Amino acid sequence: MVGLKEELLKSIWHAFTALDLDRSGKVLSHNLCTVLNVPHDPVALEEHFRDDDEGPVSNQGYMPYLNKFILEKVQGNFDKVEFNRMCWTLCAKKNLSKSPLLISDEDAFKIWVIFNFLSEDKYPLIIVPEEIEYLLKKITEAMGAGWQQEQFDHYKIALNTSREGLSAWELIDLIGSGQFSKGMDRQTVSMAINEVFNELILDVLKQGYMLKKGHKRKNWMERWFVLKPNIISYYVSEDLKEKKGDIILDGNCCVEALPDKDGKKCLFLIKCLDKTFEISASDKKKKQEWIQAIQSTVSLLRAGSAPPHKEARQKRKELRQKLQAEQEELERQMRELQAANENKQKELETVRKQLEAAAARAAEEEKKRLQTQVELQDRFSLELEREKMVRQKMEEQVAQKSSELEQYLQRVRELEEMYKQLQEALEDEKQARQDEETVRKLQARLLEEETAKRAELEKWHLQQQQTIQMTEAEKQELENQRMMKEQALQVAMEQLKQLELERKEALEQYEEVKKKLETAANNTKSWKDKVAHHEGLIRLIEPGSKNPHLITNWGPAAFTEAELEQRERSWKGKKATS
């Protein structure tokens, strides 16, 4: 019923949009109830439009009424052609082109109905180029002409540049203009349109004259047979005015070829539950075509599938939706790539500007360095010249002084310089001693933490030994405690390893400080040797002697013998307590 409702809505949409606003809802509702065999409900209609009399511009709108009081009551027992003709009558006069066409009004009506069948399920209704190509191919094949793909491709390109598809009236103008049916007369085009209309709208899968054997008189009469998805109707003639009977098809029906008999050729048999029908085709080709068509129809009924043209339309629609989704996904990915590319370009531009700024700063710094170097060279040159001049003057002034006084003064200057350097060396040694003391304090703290961890480990070990000796009744409970203590023990072991790593780092720092101290002591000693050559001028202050360091398994210790003995007594006391 959902598909039927959508098909009805398309025709109703054309009629509704073509009517004038005033009283359009009531007029259209009355006509719809008549052609759809739905009981009239004037009270509900007046109640729905009680606010004003403007149809679609009323406060409640027309669609709620249409769905509730008309479309939901449709049972399918109505003439679709009559329904479409009523909607066509309401909208054709206003929208149909006034220019002369190569098709009749009846043909235009059939194209309009086919448009509603093939159009997209969105409003305003349009038919996309793929469905236009499908329809034009069907009409061309029905006319017996060749399909001009290149001509349609040019038309499709021109159409895609301006819009997504055609409206019903533009499609009628396209077919009526004869652009794709050149060389064909009006009657051929009209017959082709009628054939496509019968197939797509009236679900006529095949039709034609054949002979049928009567059930009572057993005589053979020519009848016009029309095959639809669930029935074969036969008439006196192809004008369909006098119907003689129906062959109801279902999944239990079958069709069989029969040998020639009684002077009749090309025979085949249609078996149904209640009756059997013998039919004679005009030739073997027609016979085979009818057998295949009926067998295909029965197979579709068994599978519960839709007619071929409806199933093909659904597949084309699903394919278009899939392609559209892929196109949208591709466009989304392209937008993301474009955005990422733009961001990357911005980042590259930022990096380029940063590099340019860094290069400019480096060039400026290099320029300043070169300028400073030139200035220093000029200054040194001036100072050298000035010094030369001063030296020459001093040589002239002190030429008369003795060489011993000159040597004495020179020695005093050297000693003063040495004294300054010695002061600097003593400052370095003092700083090195301070660094050594800091490292010793750090080593002492690490050793205390290590001792505490070892005592805690020993305590946990004793507790574990005592736990092992407990009775079997308490073993399960103690086992849980043991697992918790082992986890704590594991954590403590990891902390101990961390402390050992920190102690090693402290030892490395101590070695570095020791090397610095030795370097400072060597510098001091070298200066002391130099001073010793200058007899009795300056007396150096030497650092006091240091006690020899204790050596442990991990390197030089940071404690005296007394401190170590005190810590050992403290550890033994804690062990005895635990």
Automatic annotation (TrEMBL):
SUPFAM superfamilies: PH domain-like. The lineage of its organism: Eukaryota, Metazoa, Chordata, Craniata, Vertebrata. The SWAP complex consists of NPM1, NCL, PARP1 and SWAP70. GO terms for molecular function: DNA binding. This is Switch-associated protein 70. It is found in: Cell membrane; Cell projection, Lamellipodium; Cytoplasm; Nucleus. Phosphatidylinositol 3,4,5-trisphosphate-dependent guanine nucleotide exchange factor (GEF) which, independently of RAS, transduces signals from tyrosine kinase receptors to RAC. It also mediates signaling of membrane ruffling. Regulates the actin cytoskeleton as an effector or adapter protein in response to agonist stimulated phosphatidylinositol (3,4)-bisphosphate production and cell protrusion. Keywords: Cell membrane, Cell projection, Coiled coil, Cytoplasm, DNA-binding, Membrane, Nucleus, Phosphoprotein. It comes from Cardinalis cardinalis. It comes from the Eukaryota.
